[in-house]
Amino acid sequence: MTFKTPSKNIAIIIAIVSFALGALIYNYSKVIFQEGNPWPEIKGIAQLKFSGKDIVQLSGSDNKFMTESKNGTTIHDFMKDRGYEFTGQMGSVYFFESQAGQKAIATHKYYSRYYSLWTITENQNNNLAEELKECLPKSDTVSHEKCNELLKQITDYDSCVNAGFSIMKSNPPQCATPDGRTFVENKK
After folding, report:
1. Mean of the pLDDT values across residues 160-169?
2. How far is CA 65 from CA 47, 51, 153, 172, in A?
């Protein structure tokens, strides 16, 4: 009769756990690494779960925040605490304005089914988004021509998102304009 030593049993358990963890990371790498380094998002998820906060700022960024996806009014309350009132929404972009006339936009993006990422840009010149918000719902010829001219200013993913168009759930994320153009996020 042969008995294995405890150190061999521990080595086998470590090997099995390592293999399972490696397989999990390999299978879900597109989700885990969609934002590049996943540690700020993992830390944000832990803070949301254990701190009781509704919104947390991601480490390493001044303007990126995370919320649970099920709570849709969190961003409205957060911006209200910062002195901004909600003025409208266009796709995944939420518009806010302070009483002093300063403007801010909050761009929403799903990190997973359970968590949302927000990029908040304050005091930006949102003239393009505001003008598109005014002309897109109208059907007259003048508005149509004005919108076409404004849409020509959208030349990349960032300008598409800042103009208020939705971010598609794809990997990598994409943004589409009403005139049929699609822009892919360019990770740096």
Report:
1. 80
2. 11, 15, 28, 20
Query: What residues form DSSP beta bridges with 94?
Result: 89, 106
Interval 26-38: pLDDT, tens: 887 777 777 777 8
Residue 166 has, within 13 A of its CA and on its CB side, a CA count of 7
**CA dist., res. 124 & res. 112, Å (int):** 28
Type and span of the H or E element at 29: helix 29-32
Quickly count: other Cβ atoms within 10 Å of residue 65's Cβ.
Answer: 19
Residue 53: closest CA among 79, 74, 83, 27: 74
Provide the pLDDT for residue 81: 92
> Do residues 128 and 93 make contact, with C-beta atoms less than 8 angstroms apart?
no
Which tens digit of pLDDT belongs to each residue from 98-133?
A: 888 888 888 888 888 889 999 888 865 556 777 777
Q: How far apart are the C-alpha atoms of 94 and 17, rounded to whole Å?
A: 44
Q: Which of 108, 155, 110, 100 is nearest to 128 (CA)?
A: 155
